Structure formats: C-alpha cells, structure tokens
Amino acid sequence: MTDMRAFRDAVTGWAGGGPGGAARELAVRLNVRTAVLLEGPSDHAAVEALAARRGRDLAAEGVCVVPMGGAMSVARYAGLLGPPGLGLRLTGLCDEREQPFYDRGLDRARAPRRGFFVCVADLEEELIRALGPAAVEEIFGAEGDLRAWQTFLRQPAQHGRPRQQQVRRFLGTQKGRKIRYGRLLVEALAPDRTPAPLDDLLACL
Description:
The chain is of the alpha/beta class.
C-alpha cells in the first residue's frame, strides 16, 4: 500500500511538470497494470472503501487509484499513464458535465473510453440517492455533525431546496468533509444499492 502511494505521488509530481523517472521505475517494480482516473480525493475514498468492502486489495492487483485534482487534468494524466506514456489500462469515473473533457483527453491519448463510467451530477449525489437523505442524516448524527447540519439548514439559501440537494451541498461546506463521507456513505450502502457507475467500475477492475 505504501509503495502504491509512492507511485501515485510520483505520478502527481510528473503530471505537475516534474521528472517521470520515479513513476516509470515504480510502475515496473510494482507491476502496475491499471490506473483508475478520478476527479478528486472524495471519489478516491469511495472507490477504495468499496474495494475494501468487497475484499479487494487493489494495490496487490496492480491497480492504482489516481485523484487528478479536477476533470481538466484528464488529458495530462491519460497521456502520461496511457498508450503514449506508461501504457497502463485506464479506467475511471467522471461527472456528466465533465464528460467532454474526458472524451477529448482520452482521444488525444489514444486510450479507449471503455471502462469509464458517468455519474449524473457527481459520485456524492449518486451515493445520497442510493442511501436516501434520511439515512445520510443519520450518519451525520453518528459522526457528530448533527448540530452543524441543523445550523446549515437554517441558512436562508437552503430554505425550500430539496433535501437531497441540501445534503449534497452540506458535504462541500467544510474542507475534508467530502473525503470523509465518501468513505462513510459507501460503508453504509446495502450490498444491492451500490450506484451503477461505482459498481460497474469495480466490476471492470
């Protein structure tokens, strides 16, 4: 796990303009075969939580989950990790509104789009819909966020908004909250309620 984290860090540095030697060496040493391209760390937390629930050790399987820091970075990462670079198989998730960035980036890298799955709004929205807002509110309470949630609901901007939208917005109001709840919401899912994009992604790895 630590070695795969080192590979992920090396890839991030490479994508930021640094040298790619360390990423290349680690890819060979760790036998990395697949890179899962995700927009951010909350998606990363959710994917790894679901893999753990299903008894999967992605690192041992040669799969590296890579949060890119935004959809507009996909062309850069696909070029480095896909056919023009390390030659890894690429998979991932994207939001529906960001799909054009993925399509262009994958085409530029000559990488197939098969293995990329689309969330309607984002993965948080998919998870909230799968669980239901009431179940997510129970998780807020169990995590000690009930008071913050109730304060948030009293804000004028939230009056009259659908509860599902309120829950989704609340997750983004504090740094690190989306990451923490990305894992918690996945852990709360019934086995047959996994959102299709996330389920399909794990199935193809």
